[in-house]
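Justification of resources, computational component.

The compute hours requested in this renewal are based largely on the per-chain cost of generating structure records like the one below. Each record pairs the submitted sequence with a full structure-token output. That output is archived, and it is also reused by downstream analysis tasks.
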Amino acid sequence: MKQFFELIPEQFLKAAEGCSEQAITELEQTLGISFPASLREYLTIFGKKQSHFPECHMHGCDDMLRIWEPLNYMRALWEDAGINTGFMDNIIFFFNFQDTYFYVPYEAGDDPAVYALDIGDEPTIRKLNDHLSTYIRYWMEQMLTGKYW
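The structure output for this chain reads:
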């Protein structure tokens, strides 16, 4: 039953393929964390590659481990430059678009705030919305109106 994403437009659901509950649980075990309820639900609906996310984006269950590869490289560079990267210890990256990585903090409730980390010489963090579910609905509206990113 959808709790956080009940208002998803039908054209998104037709093109969507989610991860199985088993795949999500295995990913949580591999990462050693429990996902917030809204992220779990998001992954059950949108957790696989699909037409809404170009192949070049890292997204969902299949990519959530690979997302860390470039981030670990950047983290080492930032730490060498004296930049505190402790903020990266308690977050879950779930989507990558170019040099922007989207994440939610874990242990922040069922529908946590969503942030964007822009990588460069210094990390830039932007809060996108107070709730992951609200941001995803906003993003879908932007897609439907042609205002993507």
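The first helix runs from residue 10 to 15. Residues 47 and 87 are 25 Å apart (CA to CA).
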